[in-house]
Design brief:
Elements: E1 7-8, H1 13-23, H2 26-33, E2 49-52, E3 59-62, E4 69-74, E5 77-78, E6 81-82, E7 84-92, E8 95-105, E9 108-117, E10 120-127, E11 130-139, E12 142-149, E13 152-161, E14 164-171, E15 174-176, E16 181-184
Antiparallel strand pairs: 1-16, 2-3, 4-7, 5-6, 7-8, 8-9, 9-10, 10-11, 11-12, 12-13, 13-14, 14-15, 15-16
Length: about 190
């Protein structure tokens, strides 16, 4: 599923490219293209959809599927869907690469929860298995603390990284204070 959150984390494109080369893994790339374009899946990615859990028949919502991805749900089921408190492990080639913990309703992660993957994590409010509401996203050496809407920073928030702190109003993953611009989950070129 991947949380799809990464960022073009510098005021200058060359620094952003250097940051990505040095500190981002597959998660960062997906998020950049996909919540990155957050939400949002990179070219060639599969459409959002339901996936049946490995040891149970409970389905879970996958907003950013990738080929060969499977899921393992540990928690209650209702009417064929993950429902209640539980843990969802996302697997590739049988190996876990992301763990989501919290509450599910009708197969979708909601309310307070966490999503943890190599190189980062999200902790905060979720809706439809995406960051939505207040939360903290940590990826590499960067940290965003603020509001999210449909998986992207939107509203008041602050991103802190090697280039400094970008604090203020965010819109659809983009920050622009008139002097500096940066993005999380979308390409910087798509930002005003």
């Amino acid at each position: 599923m991947l949380l799809f959150l990464a960022a073009s984390l510098a005021a200058q494109p060359s620094k952003a490219a250097e940051f990505w080369r040095k500190s981002m893994n597959r998660f960062g790339i997906l998020m950049m293209l996909a919540l990155m374009p957050v939400l949002f899946a990179p070219a060639g990615a599969l459409a959002s959809g339901w996936i049946a859990g490995e040891k149970t028949d409970s389905k879970v919502w996958n907003p950013h599927p990738s080929p060969g991805e499977t899921a393992r749900w540990s928690g209650p089921c209702k009417d064929g869907f993950a429902d209640g408190k539980g843990v969802l492990d996302w697997l590739r080639a049988g190996s876990a690469y992301e763990r989501d913990e919290g509450e599910w309703r009708g197969g979708r992660q909601i309310g307070e929860g966490t999503q943890i993957w190599p190189g980062g994590q999200y902790k905060g409010q979720l809706s439809d298995s995406l960051p939505h509401g207040r939360g903290v996203l940590i990826f590499g050496e960067a940290r965003y603390d603020g509001a999210f809407l449909n998986g992207r920073p939107n509203g008041r928030g602050a991103l802190t990284n090697k280039a400094g702190t970008f604090e203020g109003a965010w819109s659809d993953g983009c920050f622009n204070d008139g002097r500096r611009r940066t993005a999380i989950g979308v390409s910087l070129d798509s930002c005003p």
